[in-house]
Every structure is written in structure tokens, then in C-alpha cells.
Design a protein that fits this description.
heterodimer, A: alpha/beta, 11-stranded mixed β-sheet, 10 helices, 37% strand, B: alpha/beta, 3-stranded antiparallel β-sheet, 38% helix, binds adenosine-5'-diphosphate, binds magnesium ion
Chain lengths: 438, 253
């Protein structure tokens, strides 16, 4: 039907997008998929000539030719494998293995009346009108990867909290990669919070002890009604050869509040793209992140906050620990649109360089089209002040020990801001075990 | 031999000679006060003894507890021997709690003496006891090291560290400056509680105020990198009455 072929861009793309379309679904869904196919052909894959991808080389990912698992995970994952990944067994959860919904591993009960948590495919099959209303309406095609996700869209996590409802416990979304068939997952998350709804979401992206190469190409959409509140925690623990590319869109209504944590612990290539639109008067977004980089890994945090309405507040606070010959990229863009008066925004990116071979490219940027605004930004790259090391030494600790403790302190600051105690404790232990003196 | 012996100590900072031949002996159990105008080299002496690498010893030597190679030791070894500096400007360490910092410190020092490390519970008990002894609030334990502390709180935190580490030789660099009268009293009481026959003190101070609370055995005046006058507690009173100009006039001769 569509004359273009994209197999040259991505091996077997035409067959795979055809396979997804043959899964069927409502007309509006097929329209999204077909538009994705077309846009993918137009956009192609990002190259270093595009500013937004200048330092992130995706050629090795493309060359690997990962293909979607669709409805067959690489292998069966047992409940015993999932248990250690849970922060609290009572939290409602939904689990995917290689992008394929695994209902037997989830726990959808215990949610207040009116709340929907489930697989996106199930919600679509049930004719959920909110899905039709919001799916693919918020995530813009910032790159060919988003278009590809649209073209291959078939499932993912769906959470809908209706007006005025508060979730007592966080919802845990787990994506497990088995690496068993060197597969790609193109999952899609959709989270809708109604007016004054409140929820915390924890997303885990985990390589299940695999050293095989695989790809998670994720698109997420978060929609917040008036005065809604979302605490989002994204924990990336992909396998040593696992690639993780995400584009997330957050759209905030009037006086809504988002607190977001992007914690990148492991993974070969990780890109966390986060596009936040402060669309309603008085909306607030607090975006925090931590990236722990070593070896030859690449971590790219790409953030855009658009102040589209007046009296909005945004903060970016990302910290990175850079070791080995790793590469990290931080882009923080704040756009203040005409009329977005009384904008209050600040961006801060602090990097701790532990090795002379590690690199960081950090770019806080501002684009302001309103005159009554307060926008600040800053970035630091460095080691520890000599006076800090000396203070430790004067108390009997070696410089090496001081380094380790200070590194732990640097990283743990982001962790300690997390409001969910189980998650905070687990991440604090992770950071402690990774950096504290042995 | 005295516990701490300083002979003809010359120290340069960035090529400038700041200490120009300091001699001092401190026995265990003694409290010495070193006074002097700003810029005379008091902190330079304190930092040099603690082992800060910016301070280059060009002449002279120091022995501590019979270790003639004290100046060759890295700062952590000096601390493990029982040397303690209460900093004039304690640094703020984000992300590290006071309790964890001090537990690490105590255990490094214990290990160096062949003693078993204290576990978290044992350390908590020790810390609680010391906090009570020097009268600091329990919240100090969980707060990050000096982060967001007022000037007075930082100084009290230094005294707490001193109480926990139980050093043999304590150098307190202007621990009294920036304290209001209540904090000065609490800090002084802390110091007095830690005075013992086994422990020596050097109180570096700009004012006599502290010495009204902590009675020194000896008072020295440091001026332009030399100890130009020494005496008993009455010297502090004389300085207070006559001012440092009096020293300038006599010392310049
Ligand atoms: N780390 C340093 N770097 C450069 N100059 C220093 C340093 N420490 C001290 N000095 C200089 O040495 C002199 C003595 O300073 P200091 O020992 O701090 O005096 P005091 O503590 O008696 O006020 C001053 O001239 C000061 O500028
Ligand atoms: Mg001084």
C-alpha cells in the first residue's frame, strides 16, 4: 500500500511493520501505525549531524538489526526471577518480557475503583476511549525511533487514574529483557491522570542477567489534568549490551505537579529523552536525574521543557558520575513561549569526573520569548575540592577512601530526594555498594 | 621529651615564607594558647601540623609522641597517631551524614591500632554518649557533615568530632570565633570536659574571651611568623588591655 521501503534504513522493517498491522485493531490505531511507517521513511535514523543526536551514535544499534519479538518472548520468565526486582510485593504491577505482556507475573488488583492498570492492547481491544483520545497525541516524532515505535505499536503499560482519585501505593511497571533472541521491544506507555488525581509510578527496565545485545525502543506519554500530581521514577538497569532509547512526553494541565526521577544505573547505550509541556497556568515540573557511567557506555539525557503558559515552574537537577572511558551527554532546553510570563526555571547539571578518559558534553540552553521571566542555568564538571579530601584525611581516612565516600555522597543526594521509601532505600544501597570504600 | 616538640619551623605558602622559625613544646596535660593578630601565621601553623600539602616546610622539624618523622607522614597517619585539628573553616560535605563520616573515621583509626571496627550499633552508642558529653543536639548525627550548619554549629561539630576521636593532641583553630556567648560557653565546657592528663591542647585564638572559660597554662604570641612572647595566663589579659600594637612596637625592634 505504501510504496516506500524502509528496509534499507532498518533490516526487515517492512516485514515487521506489516506483521504489526496484521495484528489488526481499530482503524485509528492502524492510522497511527501507517503514519509511523511513512514518517520513519521520511525521517530516517538520527545521525550526528542532527544537533539533538550529535554525540550519540546509533549506528551500532542499527547495524545489529534487532527485530521485534511481538508476541513471543525470548524465553519464559518465572515469578522467582521477578521477586527480587520488586520494591514492595503489595504494589500493583504490570510486567512485560521482551516487550510482550506477561499477565502471569503482574498484580493488577488492589487499585481504587475506576482506576485502570493493564496492557495497552487489552485497553484498546476493550474500546477504552481515553486511549483513543490520547495515544500518540502527545509524543512528537522527535526522531525516527519514535516513528518506528508508532509503526510497530502494539502493546505497553496503560494506567488511567480518574478525576480526584489518589493511589495509595506506587504502580510498578517492569520491562524485563531476556536477551535470549537478541530481540527488540518497542513498548508504549500511556499514563493518564484526571483532574486532581495523584499517583506514583516506578518503571524498571531490567536486563535479566543477560550479556546479549538487545534494544528497548520506548515511547511514553503522560497526561496530567488540572491539579493532578505525578511522581515518576524511571530506573534503567538494562544489560551490559542492552540499548535503551526512550522518548517521553509529559503534558501538564493547570497547576499540575510532576516530580520525575531518571536513574540510569546500567545499560550499553541509554537515551532518556523527556519532553515536558507546561501547558496550563501554574504547572510545576521538578526533573531530577542520576547517571552512573563507566566502561565504554553511553548515557544521553535529553530534556526539553516548554513553558507554554504563565506562572509555571520548572527545575532540572541532573547529576552524573563518569568513570572509565564512558561518554555522557546532557542537554537541557527550556523554551519560554510568548505569553508565558512569570516563568521560573532553573537547570543544573553536575558531573563528577573520576577518570581522564571519560567525557561529558553538557549543554543547558534557553530560548525565551517572554519578558517577565526568571531563568537560570548552570553546569559543572570536575573532581573534589582539595579541602574536602584534606578534611577526611585529617580525620584518619586515606585520600582514596575520601574519594569513595565523597562519590557516594555526590550520587546519593539525588537518591535521598526520592519520596518513596522502599525505592529510596534500595537505590541508596545500590549507590553505596557501588562507590563506598571496599 | 615533650609530647609535641616544634623546632625552628619555617613554612612557605606559594613561595612566601609565613612561619619564620617557630619553637614550641607541649606536654601531655598542658593547655597552650597561641594568640596573634590576623595574618600572623596561626592557621598556617595549625594546617602545617595537620599535614596540608599547600604548606611547605623549608626548615625545622616536629616530633609527636616520639615520632621524629611526623612531618613526613600523610595527614591520615598523623590523625591515627592522635593528632587532631579543629578547623577554623570546617568544610561542608554534601550527601554524607555526620554519623557515617565519624564512624568511618573512628574505624580507620581503630584499624590502624589493631582494634576491631565498631559496627553501626556500637558506634551509635558511642556517638550518643559523646553528643551528650559535649552537649550537641541528637539531630547532628543524621545531618550531612556541616551542610547548612551555622558558623557556631560547625564549631560545635568540630568539638563533637574531637570528643569521638579522643585524640592525644588537639589544635583548635579559632574555635571561638563566630560564636555567640551561649555557644562559646557550650564549646568551652566541651573543651574543659576533654581536658585530661593524657591530652595536650593548643588553642589558637584572636581574643581573650575563650581563655576566660578555658584556663591555659601558657600563652604565646605569634607575630609575623615567630612566637615573640610567652608567659602565663596574665599575658592574655595584658594583650587584651594593651592591644596588638603593643606587640608590634616591641617585636619590631
Ligand atoms: N593556603 C594559603 N594560600 C595562600 N596564602 C596563604 C594560605 N594560607 C595562609 N596564607 C597567607 O599566610 C599568611 C598567614 O595566614 P594565616 O596563617 O591564615 O594567619 P592567621 O591564621 O594568623 O590569621 C597570610 O598572609 C595569608 O594570606
Ligand atoms: Mg587563622
Amino acid at each position: 500500500m505504501i510504496p516506500t521501503t524502509s528496509n534499507a534504513l532498518w533490516p526487515h522493517f517492512d516485514e515487521d511493520s506489516g506483521r504489526v498491522q496484521s495484528l489488526g485493531g481499530p482503524a485509528w490505531l492502524q492510522t497511527i501505525r501507517r503514519a509511523g511507517v511513512e514518517r520513519f521513511a521520511e525521517l530516517g535514523l538520527p545521525t550526528h549531524r542532527q544537533e539533538a543526536w550529535r554525540f550519540t551514535n546509533v549506528a551500532p544499534i542499527v547495524k545489529a538489526g534487532f527485530r521485534p519479538a511481538l508476541n513471543q518472548p525470548g524465553r519464559t520468565v518465572t515469578a522467582e526471577e521477578v521477586t527480587p526486582l520488586l520494591y514492595c510485593p503489595s504494589w500493583p504491577r504490570i510486567v512485560f518480557v521482551d516487550g510482550v505482556y506477561a499477565p502471569g507475573l503482574g498484580r493488577l488488583q488492589g487499585l481504587p475503583a475506576g482506576v485502570t492498570l493493564g496492557s495497552l492492547a487489552t485497553a484498546i481491544a476493550a474500546g477504552d476511549v481515553s486511549v483513543e483520545q490520547h495515544l500518540a497525541k502527545h509524543a512528537s516524532e522527535t526522531s525516527g525511533f519514535v516513528a518506528m515505535n508508532n509503526a510497530l505499536l502494539h502493546d505497553g503499560a496503560y494506567l488511567h487514574v480518574p478525576d480526584g482519585v489518589t493511589l495509595d501505593e506506587p504502580v510498578h511497571i517492569l520491562y524485563l529483557a531476556t536477551g535470549a533472541r537478541e530481540a527488540a521491544a518497542h513498548p508504549r506507555n500511556l499514563v493518564i491522570l484526571g483532574a486532581a488525581a495523584k499517583a506514583a509510578v516506578v518503571e524498571s527496565y531490567v536486563g535479566l542477567g543477560t550479556s546479549a545485545a538487545y534494544l528497548t525502543n520506548l515511547v511514553s506519554e503522560f497526561v496530567l489534568g488540572e491539579k493532578a500530581s505525578l511522581h515518576r521514577h524511571k530506573i534503567v538497569e538494562e544489560g551490559a549490551a542492552g540499548h535503551h532509547l526512550e522518548s517521553a512526553a509529559v503534558v501538564q494541565g493547570r497547576e499540575s505537579v510532576v516530580e520525575s526521577y531518571a536513574m540510569t544505573l546500567t545499560g550499553r547505550t541509554v537515551r532518556n529523552e523527556l519532553n515536558v509541556s507546561l501547558a496550563g497556568d501554574g504547572a510545576r515540573a521538578e526533573l531530577k536525574g542520576l547517571y552512573l557511567n563507566d566502561g565504554e557506555r553511553l548515557i544521553d539525557n535529553y530534556l526539553q521543557v516548554t513553558h507554554a503558559a504563565p506562572h509555571c515552574y520548572s527545575r532540572m537537577g541532573y547529576k552524573g558520575v563518569l568513570d572509565g572511558a564512558s561518554n555522557a551527554v546532557f542537554t537541557g532546553k527550556v523554551h519560554v513561549l510568548p505569553g508565558a510570563q512569570k516563568t521560573d526555571s532553573n537547570q543544573l547539571n553536575n558531573n563528577l569526573l573520576l577518570s581522564g578518559d571519560a567525557t561529558i558534553d553538557t549543554k543547558p540552553q534557553l530560548e525565551i520569548f517572554a519578558d517577565d521571566v526568571k531563568c537560570t542555568h548552570g553546569a559543572t564538571i570536575g573532581g573534589f575540592p582539595r579541602e574536602h579530601l584534606f578534611y577526611f584525611q585529617s580525620r584518619g581516612m586515606t585520600a582514596a577512601m575520601a574519594h569513595a565516600i565523597l562519590t557516594y555522597g555526590f550520587a546519593s543526594e539525588v537518591v535521598h530526594a526520592i519520596a518513596v521509601p522502599e525505592l529510596r532505600a534500595r537505590l541508596a544501597k545500590y549507590v553505596f555498594d557501588k562507590y563506598s570504600p571496599k | 621529651m615533650a609530647m609535641l616538640e616544634i623546632h625552628n619551623l619555617h613554612v612557605e605558602v606559594d613561595g612566601n615564607e609565613i612561619l619564620r622559625g617557630v619553637d614550641l613544646k607541649v606536654e601531655a596535660g598542658e593547655v597552650h594558647a597561641i594568640m596573634g593578630p590576623n595574618g600572623s601565621g596561626k592557621s598556617t601553623l595549625a594546617q602545617t601540623l595537620a599535614g596540608h600539602e599547600a604548606y611547605e616546610v623549608t626548615q625545622g622539624d616536629v616530633s609527636f609522641l616520639g615520632h621524629a618523622d611526623f612531618l613526613e607522614m600523610p595527614p591520615e597517619e598523623r590523625a591515627r597517631l592522635g593528632f587532631f585539628l579543629a578547623f577554623q573553616y570546617p568544610v561542608e560535605i554534601p550527601g554524607i551524614s555526620n554519623a557515617y563520616f565519624l564512624q568511618s573515621s573512628v574505624n580507620e583509626i581503630r584499624k590502624s591500632h589493631g582494634l576491631p571496627e565498631l559496627d553501626a550499633i556500637e558506634f551509635q552508642d558511642l556517638l550518643a554518649e559523646k553528643m551528650e558529653q559535649v552537649n550537641v543536639p541528637m539531630q547532628f548525627a543524621d545531618r550531612n557533615v556541616n551542610e547548612g550548619f551555622s558558623g557556631g554549629e560547625k564549631k560545635r561539630n568540630e568539638i563533637l568530632q574531637m570528643a569521638v576521636l579522643e585524640p592525644r593532641m588537639c589544635v583548635l583553630d579559632e574555635t571561638d570565633s563566630g560564636l555567640d556567648i551561649d555557644a562559646l560557653r557550650i564549646v568551652s565546657e566541651g573543651i574543659n570536659k576533654l581536658r585530661s592528663k593524657e591530652r595536650g591542647f593548643i588553642l589558637v585564638t584572636h581574643y581573650q574571651r575563650l581563655l576566660d572559660y578555658v584556663k591555659p597554662d601558657y600563652v604565646h604570641v605569634l607575630y609575623r611568623g615567630r612566637l615573640v612572647k610567652s608567659g602565663g595566663p596574665e599575658l592574655a589579659a595584658e594583650l587584651e588591655a594593651k592591644g596588638y600594637d603593643w606587640i608590634r612596637q616591641t617585636a619590631d625592634v
